[in-house]
Design brief:
alpha/beta, 10 helices, 13 strands, elongated
Length: 299
């Protein structure tokens, strides 16, 4: 999927007086990634996005998009939503996109395809003021897509939305990612990041604590739960299985790190040892647990 770096930062920093909002960020994002910025409030997520969009100037350090110098004219290749959607309430969705297209010097023929992409074509002639919050957010994404950018940047794209709106934006992000665009999003909804992102970074107080793939992070967390009549004997046998290093007792179950083993392999092994299990299940990790583990590790 990834085809080389589309964004690289080197010791990127931003200070406001004595406050260090971003501290020496080294970051590399490859083309085709759906990359999530995670962190508590005030961690530097929005500051980082503002720097990358040249809304703010860095105090020190540098970055480059597409291998070009940071102040080169690259904004036409980047679509972004940093704040709440801002459109004319009495104009229709189509008319609002006409305004955006003229500002961006984009052919009006681009409007219909992006309306179809965000599933607003049937409501294109309705006034913006009649749109739900989710529809307003989708129209903002349509506006960001007008110039067919290589990168889409979204700051808290599901903020304030109801469950249906969150699902709509999630599905839209997946749909856009499927076209090969690189997507960078900042969010505090860890479950949503887990569902849409391929990679993520954790920031706290302007410092990067972690960067990696969602798949690897969750695989590292995967556990196998097992129970049998004789739990002590079960524990003694489990530690003899290759790859099982530590077995823990949690309530009425034994738990150990899954690594690359499957429940079928464990069951086959235990049957050979004359053990009949009453419970055997693989528990996949989740990004919330990994996020909290990363924060705790750097306390």
């Amino acid at each position: 999927m990834s085809m080389g770096p589309i964004l690289e930062t080197a010791q990127l920093s931003k200070s406001y007086g004595r406050i260090r909002a971003l501290d020496n960020l080294d970051l590399s994002i490859n083309e085709g990634m759906v990359f999530g910025f995670l962190g508590p409030n005030g961690s530097g997520k929005t500051t980082t996005l503002a720097l990358l969009l040249q809304v703010l100037r860095p105090s020190s350090g540098s970055f480059n998009w597409f291998g070009k110098p940071q102040w080169d004219n690259v904004r036409k290749d980047i679509g972004a939503i940093l704040e709440s959607p801002c459109f004319y309430p009495y104009l229709s969705g189509y008319q609002n996109l006409m305004v955006s297209a003229r500002i961006k010097e984009v052919n009006l023929a681009a409007i219909e395809p992006v309306l179809r992409t965000v599933d607003l074509y049937e409501r294109r002639n309705d006034p913006f003021k009649t749109y739900s919050l989710g529809m307003k957010q989708r129209l903002a994404i349509a506006s960001a897509l007008l110039a067919n950018p290589r990168v889409l940047i979204l700051d808290e794209p599901t903020n304030g939305l109801d469950p249906q709106g969150i699902v709509e934006i999630r599905n839209l992000i997946k749909k856009i990612a499927g076209t090969g665009k690189t997507i960078i999003l900042a969010s505090h909804l860890l479950d949503e990041v887990q569902k849409v992102c391929s990679h993520f970074m954790v920031l706290r107080q302007g410092t990067k604590l972690f960067q990696g793939s969602v798949k690897d992070a969750l695989t590292d967390q995967s556990l196998i739960e097992v129970a049998a009549a004789d739990m002590q004997y079960l524990a003694e046998i489990l530690v003899t299985y290759p790859g099982v290093e530590k077995v823990e007792r949690r309530d009425d179950k034994l738990v150990f790190k899954a690594s690359s083993m499957s429940t079928a392999q464990i069951n086959h092994f235990l049957i050979e040892k004359k053990i009949v299990v009453s419970h055997l299940a693989k528990k996949n990790g989740n990004l919330e647990e990994e996020f909290l583990r990363i924060l705790a590790k750097h306390e």
